[in-house]
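TL;DR need structure tokens for one chain.
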Amino acid sequence: MKERLQKSRGGIMGFEMDIRQAPPRDTTEVLVEIRTDAQREVILTGDFTGWAADRYRLRKDPDGVWRTRLHLRPGDYQYRLIVDGEWRDNPEATRRVPNPFGGENCVMSVPGAGESGRMTP
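>> reply
TL;DR here they are.
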């Protein structure tokens, strides 16, 4: 749920704040790091978002790596990247499966609940 806060006369104007519930206890926090030549944006999408193309926008850190954090239940997930508007694979992904469009989806494994870790491509 998004709430827009607005104040007049020198206050906050056009500031958006995401209000989200705490992640379920049976999920694992996963750090996603993507190294790509993206200039504008990197979006992570997959079967864990219903393939929505607007849910996980990564942020580019000063070291040039795009990052975000997810909370997912343990298991394997198929995903793709949208880099500057173009669907792409994660170049570091070692596991892939065919998709219905003639290409491949990358696969990431999420460790057990309560553990944190990095995305295992």
